Amino acid sequence: MEVDTAMELDAEAAAAPSPSSKRLSVRNTIQTNFGDDYIFQIAANQEISNLALSLSSNTIKFYSSVTGQYVGECRGHNGTIHEISFSVPSSPQTICSCSSDGTVRAWDVRTFKQVSSLSTSSSQELFSFCFGGSSGNLLAGGSNAQIYFWDWRNGNHMACLEESHMDDVTQVRFVPHLQNQLISSSVDGLMCLFDASGSINDDDHLDQVMNVETSIAKIGFFGTMNQKLWCMTHLETLSIWDWRNARREVSFEDARSLASNKWNLDDIDYFVDCHYSEIDDRLWVIGGTGSGTLGYFPINNDHVGTIGVAEAILEGGHAGVVRTVLPASGTQLSISKNNIFCWTGGEDGRLCCWLSDEPSGSNSSWISKSLVMRSHKDRRMRHHPY
Known about the structure:
- By secondary structure, this protein is an all-beta fold.
- It is built from two helices and 29 strands.
- The chain is globular.
């Protein structure tokens, strides 16, 4: 079996688009399989040293963030895993996942066993979930034009909103520090703000509707009071909103072109995510090329709205589209105390660890010695339905 060795980019051999750009090196790469599976998402918990990876084989695998060793996996979903998160209230040893099989499942990461499962009616596909509510135990799940609510403590189904969206709900997010405020996004181009207190229903608890006018892929909060919302669409456009007033402040309809003009590498083909630093109060959009190079582009979200020169470049680790970026524990665009900048995963099945200002003598390969056996299945070409 062939495995990938660690690669380091020679910063002097490639022209950086700006003297201020960080050219990051690949400290380690782990080939998580035989190349058949994609990595959809990476999740981590500061209290646990393992990284969780959701794969296109409907499996969650765990790797040590210290040694790169494969440590275990959770199996049970029979459909695509759309989201994973270590966000279960008062339970750092539990990871949750939602899937096309219509379930939200909780797993104990010490035993890799399922500990609970919640289901939608008629096994409706679940694309996103989030914990919130006044007690933190309200679980919201985005489905096929519906939003489900459960009480996580007892598994009781609390409500179902089915009149606010007309297509698949791609994300549900409770507002940080305002846990009774929920924002949903959908393929129908709408973002809806709900009051999740009391008896939840469409008529009395829908507070705001924001029309993005095209299918929404991801949303996220930022700002010193989480008063802003970034919105990324499936057409790779980007917009900034004041969600409290339902007002669009900036729209980047040609975001890929704007980012491509801010470095001298290949054109940006897609956006992976946005990253916000609370310490610096700054927002970056993370763009990628088909060959796997990534750039962190700062966003100026004033009334003009600009995308700046790439401040970090991740090149040489991936051989295909990158699907997920997990920043190190520090929120600022710098390096954490162990020099790890971020982790990335993609359609090449690689998990890459990125460093900046790598200390001398630390270029050893970091390959898992316990790779899981090849999964016998058809190759998935994309993460359906989006």
